[in-house]
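[stage:ingest] chain + small molecule (xanthosine-5'-monophosphate)
[stage:ingest] validated
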Amino acid sequence: TVLVVDFGAQYAQLIARRVREARVYSEIVPSTMPVAEILARKPAAVILSGGPSSVYEPGAPGLDRSLFEAGVPVFGMCYGFQLMATALGGTVDNTGAREYGRTALAVAKPGSTLFEGTPAEQTVWMSHGDACSAAPEGFTVTASTDLVPVAAFENDELRLYGVQYHPEVLHTVHGQQILEHFLYRGAGLTPTWTTENVVEEQVALIRAQVGTRRAICGLSGGVDSAVAAALVHKAIGDRLTCVYVDHGLMRKGETEQVEKDFVAATGVRLKVVDASERFLAALAGVSDPEQKRKIIGREFIRVFEQAQAEIVAEAPGDEPVEFLVQGTLYPDVVESGGGTGTANIKSHHNVGGLPDDLQFELVEPLRKLFKDEVRMVGQELGLPEEIVHRQPFPGPGLGIRIVGEVTRERLDLLREADAIAREELTAAGLDRDIWQCPVVLLADVRSVGVQGDGRTYGHPIVLRPVSSEDAMTADWSRLPYDVLARISTRITNEVKDVNRVVLDVTSKPPGTIEWE
Ligand code: XMP
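[stage:predict] done
[stage:export] tokens:
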């Protein structure tokens, strides 16, 4: 395992993902973890992430130099690089010389361990105020920039490496190559973290955990729950029952997709509960977003518990149903504190927010995986493309894409508009280019239009196409005008009561991806 020490959450997650992309298993640990504890985990290598602090700030996270004396290969990036420099006797100055964004890096030692095979001048992504002016004794300076004399250094004998910039971001052109050079050449690791191994390992773990008992899994139609269910099904077969709650807030074709495609691909035992009446009744008269979310979460639990009781009643003699499968992902674990002491940024709830006091033991086979890895595992398990590469869809469904009260009529209308947008995006081959494209109905807004010979007074539909790597930040997608035009024409022609289509051009932050 490569341990990524977290001096700034976003950087650390991205680094961990890049290490996995290099087929080496990585985990994130907080910067507050004592070095002794880090070493006790016997890491194959350690990476120190960048972070927002200056090494000179009072209270800035530090690092005991014993990490560098343990014979473990270490790679410091940005803040991690400066920590490494100061801990080992180099000089880091608060020069006021700030570098931010794309920067030209001059490589002084083209054949060095990190820079082997990369150009003498390369574009890297910088983000720092302090700068290293002298490398620690015994280290070779391998790169510099106009402002920073020591932008990278290495000591092959001690297997210690550092760069001032961020190799993990895409703007650093040879970033992945340099990271791989550290992993393979510097630390001598071999790329063995493969999807096949993940599946094998998880199946064994699930069997060990569940034994001969039974499990249930709430399917949302999303990729995470589908892959989690498929993994558990592979491990325990028909002792898993999947429950799909149709709350009436699903998109067009969604229920059918779960009923047909998913079952056909996995052979899983499925229980479909039609609960749309119940959800709509509970949502009647409610337009506050948070209240909607709470109501949907609450109703979901009730329906789910009922379904669980029915499963037990249907086969009372069988082993007890003691496990609940959840599609919790690694970023959820890290962001929720994850038992590693990282800051609690947000508490995630899966399966529409099941409460802690549910009498189930959790099975979370995706706890170690990033989203792209989940998709790969899904592929490995033979799930259809439409499920594996599906856009993320929120648990509360279309209920939080109607700004205003949720009614059956409005849902039907939004469902049509959404289906058109999805159809056109797929036809244009754009599914892989965008992260997701929520389609939002502004039910409380009306505007004047003209159609045929008559005046209309209808609702606007908002298109919210975004590109993102992890949904934590996002940018609005620059969709081709002709695709936007086709979507707009079709929606205004084909969807009753909609006379306007507008495009959301807000990044996240400040806007969230969903409107509610
Ligand atoms: P926001 O709107 O916070 O969304 O930028 C970030 C990502 O999370 C999805 N999302 C949800 N997913 N239950 C879910 O399972 C929810 O309650 C929920 N709310 C937002 C959203 O679609 C986007 O991918």
